[in-house]
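Exercise 3.2. Students should predict the tertiary structure of the chain below and write it as structure tokens, then compare their answer with the key that follows.

Predict this chain's 3D structure.
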Amino acid sequence: MLGEKEISATMVGSRPFMAPEQIMGQSERRSDIWAIGVLMYLLYTGELPFYSEVEKLLIDQILEQEPLPPREENPEIPPALEAIILKCLKKKLEERYPSAVALRDDLLRRFPHYGTQTGRWPWIH
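Answer key:
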């Protein structure tokens, strides 16, 4: 675990949206995939996947805990969308989508009828 001084020295960004590697002072494009996963989780459940008023506890959650499956917060979320969100929130970089394009392609592959301008995502609250 990082000490408080080490945490403060290495982190730049909005804490609830920070990927584990950002907390450790490293960042790359898949860190943005994590942030997209946090945003999708929030949009579809109304909750953040990791939250604490205490910064150290929030950091520990991001580094150590798995998020609650989104369908436990909103059962209307399709299982395929839950899988996409959870893939975005994988702790290990190599287990996330390699790029936003890969994420988009997976969304369109799994939900082709929502890839048009007239399509709606009915499970958004």
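Discussion points: The two ends are 36 Å apart (CA to CA). Confidence is low (pLDDT under 50) at residues 5-12.
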